[in-house]
């Protein structure tokens, strides 16, 4: 079967220049599945004048570059609803760069006056990357931009982190001094954004199905649910695409939206991922369709998370119901083990914020504590029995902790990279956590396929 390309694409696919000479207005760092199914889709919907083409950069592997370059940047998004599948071709990516081997090209793009927005989806761990990492490249790019006086820039992180704009701004500030720090302070903005669309890793079966529908092989395919949401702080240094025309919400303060999404959706996602994987469920849809687990997720949302969000003024319970309904979509096989990865970094924003707020209000958030317990048991089983994968940037520290003779709860609670002294010293929390860990451990672990 021929490869998807501008020549083989279905009639009506817009033909736009692609490659190092193609004009772009956005550089995206972290060209994974999510960006292709979210920000690139919003941008294509509103870029009538061709002003906001995207140069996508990878930092960890050349795979996406190899997938998209032979296709002239074209790829499709296969939208899978419970009863309907829809395929759309996206042509918004006009250049792809391997940030490790084509560093000069990436820096030149970041210093191009036509580029006015940089977006990021580099995962939680990407914000801790060292020399040669995404942050390093961004800072080098800002230096080149300042030197060239190439004009103001907006850096818009789209990862699941509370206050993602502020987090990034502080990381950039820590790494700069002197005139460059002054230039960046005066010329760069870092709005926060809340992003939402479930985009599982693409499988060979997905590629085969899309190939049959398209009549061409699409190596860059991404699969997504129909739902999508983007709430963006309207604080741009030099213009932006009219994303609101594609349904994005531009607001003054994103924090309440981020908190609600990360605590309700990502918190219950993690709970279902750990409990589900321990019960042998391969996918989130299977876990969310198990009555016990669905009830546990609902208790977390209703009893623990909702009271902590009361002063934010956003509706929570209907939001939570919709989230749990989305999780049951059987057409979207999102693996429990994919959602489970990087737990040491995800636990804080997803569950520990809820626990801290509830404890400060004198409540014991049983559902959120169950989520932490499920993570602990998952980590313990992954380290000791090897039936579950441990995919975590702190895997070594987790393995060492689990090997200590102090017991799972004490050993993992001792990890500063996850917990703090406030939770360690909270005796009632420890007791509750120990009980929940014992409860979850009693369930036999089943190997996930
Ligand atoms: N997939 C989703 O459903 C979804 C939904 C909302 C938000 N997000 C956000 O997007 C992020 C990426 O998700 P995805 O589905 O694209 O994953 P993916 O595995 O398809 O891609 C991950 C991307 O992050 C980059 N990356 C990974 N580790 C990095 C590091 N240490 N430094 C720099 N870059 C690094 C990779 O190179 C790749 O481009 C998530 O971590 C999350 O913050 C994802
Ligand atoms: O992408 P991660 O690894 O940060 O988290 C896994 C999922 O919880 C997450 O991707 C959700 O699907 C997403 O946040 C929905 O918008």
Automatic annotation (TrEMBL):
<dbReference type="InterPro" id="IPR050988">
    <property type="entry name" value="Mannitol_DH/Oxidoreductase"/>
</dbReference>
<dbReference type="InterPro" id="IPR013328">
    <property type="entry name" value="6PGD_dom2"/>
</dbReference>
<dbReference type="InterPro" id="IPR013131">
    <property type="entry name" value="Mannitol_DH_N"/>
</dbReference>
<protein>
    <submittedName>
        <fullName>Mannitol dehydrogenase family protein</fullName>
    </submittedName>
</protein>
<feature type="domain" description="Mannitol dehydrogenase N-terminal">
    <location>
        <begin position="25"/>
        <end position="245"/>
    </location>
</feature>
<dbReference type="InterPro" id="IPR008927">
    <property type="entry name" value="6-PGluconate_DH-like_C_sf"/>
</dbReference>
<dbReference type="InterPro" id="IPR036291">
    <property type="entry name" value="NAD(P)-bd_dom_sf"/>
</dbReference>
<feature type="region of interest" description="Disordered">
    <location>
        <begin position="1"/>
        <end position="20"/>
    </location>
</feature>
<dbReference type="InterPro" id="IPR000669">
    <property type="entry name" value="Mannitol_DH"/>
</dbReference>
<dbReference type="InterPro" id="IPR013118">
    <property type="entry name" value="Mannitol_DH_C"/>
</dbReference>
<feature type="domain" description="Mannitol dehydrogenase C-terminal">
    <location>
        <begin position="253"/>
        <end position="439"/>
    </location>
</feature>
<dbReference type="Pfam" id="PF01232">
    <property type="entry name" value="Mannitol_dh"/>
</dbReference>
<keyword id="KW-0560">Oxidoreductase</keyword>
<dbReference type="Pfam" id="PF08125">
    <property type="entry name" value="Mannitol_dh_C"/>
</dbReference>
